């Protein structure tokens, strides 16, 4: 995707008129484009006006259900120092997310509305970009183990990108480990210490699983997976 | 909330405006600290915009209630992540709501269902309950939409109110993809300026 093409997607993005994959590609670009974020903000205020104009009072029962649910819903802590959640935050941020849900995945949601903090932009991982922009990239949304995210898989690159946020804090001395699961024994795909992880050499694997392992990981999974996900495509 | 636009339409300088103590930004700060009473006041201000936005896209009232509930709980859960210097609270909330609504129709509705949503478009401006506090908003938006070309207007309403992707909109309107992207952008910029000027 050229810069020109990408810029042309600002308005469709502000209108939520991109499909999942294009949305993610665009958000990947947004992370690096301060001027896009600034223009997007104005467009988002405008689209929100379209929503405001559609206001309609909900049934009274909704209020009761919402109040009941928030009474048992843990809140997210402030994003300490991590103002740009759609970039690739490191381990500490993931861990302080605690058991709370982050319904907005790394690349998604209101983060795009919020223009970036001034200062240098961390470079995005070119391996992530490659998978997201692959012609045969397929994505699937994930909601598992209290977290949400996305897997994007490119058969031609034999790579996948998994983005998860809101997973419960891993116990001290432990790590999340990713596994490629297929006809053979599960193979380690590395630790998940960042919200976004590139999985190489997918080969014949059909699923990705996550387990909690001793710090540094294990050669074979030592516990039942928290969840497994079918690779899209 | 006699003049909701006052807190809502500014594009770049919200952070410089003094905010009333019952303003959404201030309330959200309290919500982020676990203040449920503040959330009830937030609920008063955002529940109708959230539900209305979602209902417009999803159409089915039962599903709209579900999606609205998810959104409202998300506002509670993520209140600490809202930063008023980077956009208005209502835009933040409605971005969450619209995204969820669009995701719902795209994941759950077969294409045949989606076809059925098209005819409703013509009723867009008439079917919404005439709530006092939103009449002004609606009239202002309607006037600004009225200033768009037909293609601009249709490209924006098919995307935002019907939840179509821009290739789907291009197909429905029989125009090239590049044209649709341009029209969407032109339309939003024109509306932005129209709404902003009147503030």
UniProtKB/TrEMBL annotation, chain A:
<feature type="domain" description="Anti-sigma K factor RskA C-terminal">
    <location>
        <begin position="96"/>
        <end position="224"/>
    </location>
</feature>
<keyword id="KW-1133">Transmembrane helix</keyword>
<dbReference type="InterPro" id="IPR018764">
    <property type="entry name" value="RskA_C"/>
</dbReference>
<feature type="transmembrane region" description="Helical">
    <location>
        <begin position="93"/>
        <end position="113"/>
    </location>
</feature>
<keyword id="KW-0805">Transcription regulation</keyword>
<dbReference type="InterPro" id="IPR053877">
    <property type="entry name" value="RskA_N"/>
</dbReference>
<keyword id="KW-0812">Transmembrane</keyword>
<dbReference type="Pfam" id="PF10099">
    <property type="entry name" value="RskA_C"/>
</dbReference>
<protein>
    <recommendedName>
        <fullName>Regulator of SigK</fullName>
    </recommendedName>
</protein>
<dbReference type="InterPro" id="IPR051474">
    <property type="entry name" value="Anti-sigma-K/W_factor"/>
</dbReference>
<keyword id="KW-1003">Cell membrane</keyword>
<dbReference type="Pfam" id="PF22618">
    <property type="entry name" value="RskA_N"/>
</dbReference>
<keyword id="KW-0804">Transcription</keyword>
<keyword id="KW-0472">Membrane</keyword>
<dbReference type="InterPro" id="IPR041916">
    <property type="entry name" value="Anti_sigma_zinc_sf"/>
</dbReference>
<feature type="domain" description="Anti-sigma-K factor RskA N-terminal">
    <location>
        <begin position="11"/>
        <end position="48"/>
    </location>
</feature>
Automatic annotation (TrEMBL), chain B:
<feature type="domain" description="RNA polymerase sigma factor 70 region 4 type 2">
    <location>
        <begin position="138"/>
        <end position="190"/>
    </location>
</feature>
<dbReference type="InterPro" id="IPR036388">
    <property type="entry name" value="WH-like_DNA-bd_sf"/>
</dbReference>
<dbReference type="InterPro" id="IPR013325">
    <property type="entry name" value="RNA_pol_sigma_r2"/>
</dbReference>
<comment type="similarity">
    <text>Belongs to the sigma-70 factor family. ECF subfamily.</text>
</comment>
<keyword id="KW-0804">Transcription</keyword>
<dbReference type="InterPro" id="IPR013249">
    <property type="entry name" value="RNA_pol_sigma70_r4_t2"/>
</dbReference>
<dbReference type="Pfam" id="PF08281">
    <property type="entry name" value="Sigma70_r4_2"/>
</dbReference>
<dbReference type="InterPro" id="IPR007627">
    <property type="entry name" value="RNA_pol_sigma70_r2"/>
</dbReference>
<feature type="region of interest" description="Disordered">
    <location>
        <begin position="1"/>
        <end position="21"/>
    </location>
</feature>
<dbReference type="InterPro" id="IPR014284">
    <property type="entry name" value="RNA_pol_sigma-70_dom"/>
</dbReference>
<keyword id="KW-0731">Sigma factor</keyword>
<dbReference type="InterPro" id="IPR039425">
    <property type="entry name" value="RNA_pol_sigma-70-like"/>
</dbReference>
<keyword id="KW-0805">Transcription regulation</keyword>
<feature type="domain" description="RNA polymerase sigma-70 region 2">
    <location>
        <begin position="43"/>
        <end position="109"/>
    </location>
</feature>
<dbReference type="InterPro" id="IPR013324">
    <property type="entry name" value="RNA_pol_sigma_r3/r4-like"/>
</dbReference>
<dbReference type="Pfam" id="PF04542">
    <property type="entry name" value="Sigma70_r2"/>
</dbReference>
<protein>
    <submittedName>
        <fullName>ECF RNA polymerase sigma factor SigK</fullName>
    </submittedName>
</protein>
